[in-house]
Specification:
The complex is a heterodimer of chains A (126) and B (176). Chain A is an alpha/beta fold. Chain A has one domain: P-loop containing nucleotide triphosphate hydrolases (Rossmann fold, 3-Layer(aba) Sandwich), CATH 3.40.50.300. Chain A contains five helices and six strands. In chain A, strand 5 and strand 6 form a beta hairpin. Chain B is an alpha/beta fold. In chain B, 39% of the residues lie in helices and 22% in strands. Chain B is built from five helices and seven strands, in the order E-H-E-H-E-E-H-H-E-H-E-E. The longest helix of chain B has 20 residues. The model of chain B has no long low-confidence stretch (mean pLDDT 93). The chains are: A alpha/beta (126), B alpha/beta (176).
Chain lengths: 126, 176
Amino acid sequence: MELIVGGAYQGKWRYAQERFPHIVWADGETCTLEGLLQAEGVYRFHIFLDRQMRQGEEVLDLPGLIMEQNPGLVIVSDEVGYGVVPVDAHERAFREAVGRVCCQLAQSADRVHRVVCGIGTVIRDA
Amino acid sequence: MLTVVTGGSGSGKSAYAEDLLLSYGPGERIYIATMFPFDEESHKRIARHRDMRRDKGFKTVECYTGLDKLDIPSDAHVLLECMSNLVANEMFQEGGAGGQVVGAVIDGIRALQRSVAQICVVTNEIFSGSQSYDGETRLYQENLGAINCRIVEMADVAVEVVYGIPLYIKGKGEKV
């Protein structure tokens, strides 16, 4: 598994496509859980988490499910925990969940990439 | 030695900091808890952190304001978590330092540095959100930002934790 993270608009998607040019991507904004578990890559992964949470799904189980059923997945996600703690309770729970899920994914990933200003750095290479 | 651990929300910085304290070996481990339990969510958050460090041999000392008044044994290893709550308490709680928050907190860290051998301070990155704030929130960001800069200046090691992965921004640090 490969995990690519970074703030919004940092060039993560472009970096991911350059690095993994020939894979089939799912879009986290529209894909189903089944679609995600069958794809080779998923972008806007944080939006997928938001959608799942709004449907009342438990997202903390997702890393285990991915490792079990789709361990080669390339995941592109925004880092969302770098602002002031939001007033809205769902927003607070969401950013916390993105953090917990990505911590678990990072631990199992073969590589973790962080993209800042279009430049990707491999911050973990297992 | 002073180590500053920073990171975003849910980045794994607490777990990293706790493991760092364990790596210092035997000695009294003191956890300075700064989160004031004002609602159910904060009670839950505190309970989660207590669970995380349950078997790690920490003695918890609550400190919501007035860090410089704490009496900590000199051979202790200290983990302060977290700076963002301490700063909010000092700014907004009755009896807090109010407008003098930056000086008060830095004095508190200095006092700790004088009295104990190992200190780790966990702080928080709250500076890259999408909203622009005004009034108190802006001032809170300004104060926490200033304190972060000052304590990293004073620190031997500063590390940003990204989803459990330590990125050293000052000093080499010990890999946990």
